[in-house]
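Regression test case RT-17, inverse folding.

Input:
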């Protein structure tokens, strides 16, 4: 059975431009692989990194067909297995691979891998598992490079400040995109510090935050694998395409119906508008978030909650 599974992965490897394939459980455990340069450590690194992206994409879109991360030096492709949501393939390719040919030639191989897993590997693979907070802490402590030292994990981002003219200019660009591409479902900019520019008010802030997180996680994977900067994320479902492009201090996100327009033409249209949006955002002001001093004292104090007095202003 293992030979059959390896043969199915090798069939994908023979597609021009494909470099490596890893079959992964949705909890990040690699099952099988085929390729030219992945070591054992690299296989586990790819599996653990891409499962986070796979999970975020599932939160946003539910079932999806594939997710494509593009950089100057390579493409990383996550493909869901048909009717088998517990497994996916992570595939790295050359930067000039023909995506249309890849999708067509890979279709039968994905069905074959899914069939083999359902029919012959049931009960033979390690069970899916989750980690408690204590187990997660122990795993993270294993990445410490100095024995005996305490590791701390934190993140810090600056807040983007837009004046009225910049915000109106960005909204004008979004309006032009909306009018030039048919059947758009949503288009917005999700910027650092929680700034959201859109044509829809503040209706889908969860999707804006998740789009930002999906791009951020994808960028970390591309930098880890190829030391390259992420350019585009494309997630395709049966009905929609979700584009995410990097802009200064944020991301541009577009939902459009899959049959609305040719993929290549859509990319050409977006390139012009994104260059203009990047020009405007490069002139915006970055500010470090400041916590009011009285609130800082309250949060950092060691007093018990019974000593905190809550007050409100009557309307």
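Golden output:
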């Amino acid at each position: 059975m293992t030979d059959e599974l390896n043969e199915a992965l090798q069939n994908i490897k023979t597609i021009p431009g494909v470099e490596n394939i890893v079959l992964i459980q949705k909890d990040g455990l690699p099952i099988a692989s085929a390729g030219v340069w992945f070591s054992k450590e690299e296989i586990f690194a790819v599996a653990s990194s891409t499962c986070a992206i796979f999970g975020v994409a599932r939160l946003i879109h539910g079932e999806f067909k594939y997710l494509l991360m593009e950089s100057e030096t390579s493409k990383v492709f996550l493909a869901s297995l048909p009717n088998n949501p517990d497994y996916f393939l992570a595939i790295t390719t050359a930067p000039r691979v023909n995506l249309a040919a890849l999708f067509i030639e890979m279709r039968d191989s994905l069905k074959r891998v899914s069939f083999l897993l359902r029919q012959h590997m049931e009960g033979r693979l390690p069970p899916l598992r989750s980690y408690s907070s204590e187990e997660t802490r122990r795993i993270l402590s294993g990445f410490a490079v100095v024995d005996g030292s305490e590791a701390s994990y934190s993140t810090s981002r600056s807040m983007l400040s837009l004046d009225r003219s910049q915000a109106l200019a960005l909204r004008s660009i979004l309006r032009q995109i909306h009018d030039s591409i048919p059947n758009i479902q949503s288009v917005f900019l999700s910027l650092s510090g929680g700034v959201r520019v859109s044509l829809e008010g503040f209706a889908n802030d969860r999707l804006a935050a998740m789009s930002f997180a999906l791009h951020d996680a994808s960028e970390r994977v591309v930098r880890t694998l190829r030391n390259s900067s992420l350019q585009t994320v494309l997630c395709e479902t049966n009905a929609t395409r979700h584009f995410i492009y990097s802009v200064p201090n944020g991301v541009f996100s577009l939902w459009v119906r899959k049959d609305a327009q040719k993929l290549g033409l859509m990319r050409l249209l977006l390139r012009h508008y994104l260059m203009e949006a990047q020009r405007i955002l490069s002139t915006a002001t970055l500010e470090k978030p400041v916590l009011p001093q009285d609130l800082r004292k309250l949060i950092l104090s060691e007093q018990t909650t019974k000593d905190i007095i809550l007050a409100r202003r009557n309307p």
